[in-house]
């Protein structure tokens, strides 16, 4: 990043052009053995990211653990509810508040928060490169992993989700505790972003143009997300059910 405007008349960023295809496309054409290798590498990259010492790459990286992260998350969600009129989410936030003390604490990690195979490129030389860092922030690594599991499992299958979780635990060498709690956060985040984008417009939320239409085409995925939320919490959200029926 160059903030000095003297060179081009304004600040600018120099970015690398990654030549290749997204990992989803590469996997379709890979042998079973090669696909397994690529998915192991896919999870290894996420494990490596979560192991980075945050202060080395993020100025002002916060101190704290899961408790601070969840408190900040709930405060942000509360503001979102007020600004976008999505009060139907309140029972889920109450559930998170009621259960957060049961979650084993972890230190904060660098997270990507949109890590899936469409945001990983297979370069022509065989290396994998991670794209789309706009949501990266300090957080609990399990929230990052749960988002990956949610997208890969609801656009894909339960078997894909289970394989990624097993691979993550194998590569990291430790059990991922309380992932079901973070499943709830991931599902709520997904439903909230979709419902808010439909009412406020995706571009207002920082999403790219055309995101609303993509979401309408993903009705099956969204119903599976809602199903996971109900399974984990027992909470029914009539407004979301009505919204999904309208898609």
CATH topology of the domain at 60-110 and 136-246: Aminoglycoside 3'-phosphotransferase, Chain: A, domain 2
Number of distinct helices: 10
* Percent strand: 5-15%
CATH class of the domain at 60-110 and 136-246: Alpha Beta
CATH superfamily of the domain at 60-110 and 136-246: Aminoglycoside phosphotransferase (APH), C-terminal lobe
| CATH architecture designation of the domain at 60-110 and 136-246 | Alpha-Beta Complex
Separation, N- and C-terminal Cα atoms: 41 Å
- Estimated helix fraction: 55-70%
Major sheet characteristics: 3 strands, antiparallel
- Unreliable runs: none
What is the strand arrangement across the widest sheet? 1-3-4
Radius of gyration: 19 Å
Shape: globular
Succession of helices and strands: EHHHHEEEEHHHHHH
Number of strands: 5
Summed over residues and divided by their number, the pLDDT gives a mean of: 91
**Structural class by SSE content:** mainly alpha
């Amino acid at each position: 990043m160059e903030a000095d405007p003297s060179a081009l008349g304004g600040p600018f960023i120099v970015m690398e052009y990654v030549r290749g295809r997204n990992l989803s496309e590469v996997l379709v054409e890979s042998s079973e053995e090669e696909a397994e290798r690529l998915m192991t590498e896919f999870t290894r990259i996420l494990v490596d990211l979560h192991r980075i010492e945050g202060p080395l790459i993020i100025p002002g990286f916060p101190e704290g653990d899961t408790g601070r992260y969840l408190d900040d998350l709930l405060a942000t969600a509360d503001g979102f509810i007020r600004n976008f009129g999505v009060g139907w989410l309140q029972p889920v936030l109450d559930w998170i508040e009621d259960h957060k003390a049961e979650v084993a604490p972890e230190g904060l990690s660098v997270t990507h928060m949109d890590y899936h195979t469409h945001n990983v490129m297979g370069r022509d030389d065989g290396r994998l490169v991670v794209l789309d860092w706009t949501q990266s922030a300090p957080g609990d690594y399990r929230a990052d992993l749960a988002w990956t599991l949610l997208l890969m499992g609801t656009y894909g299958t339960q078997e894909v989700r289970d394989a990624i979780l097993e691979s993550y635990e194998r590569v990291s060498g430790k059990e991922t505790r309380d992932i079901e709690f973070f499943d709830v956060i991931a599902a709520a985040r997904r439903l909230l972003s979709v419902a808010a984008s439909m009412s406020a417009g995706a571009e207002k939320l920082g999403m790219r143009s055309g995101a609303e239409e993509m979401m309408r085409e993903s009705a099956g995925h969204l119903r599976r997300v809602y199903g996971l939320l109900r399974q984990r919490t027992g909470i029914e959200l009539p407004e979301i059910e009505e919204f999904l029926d309208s898609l």
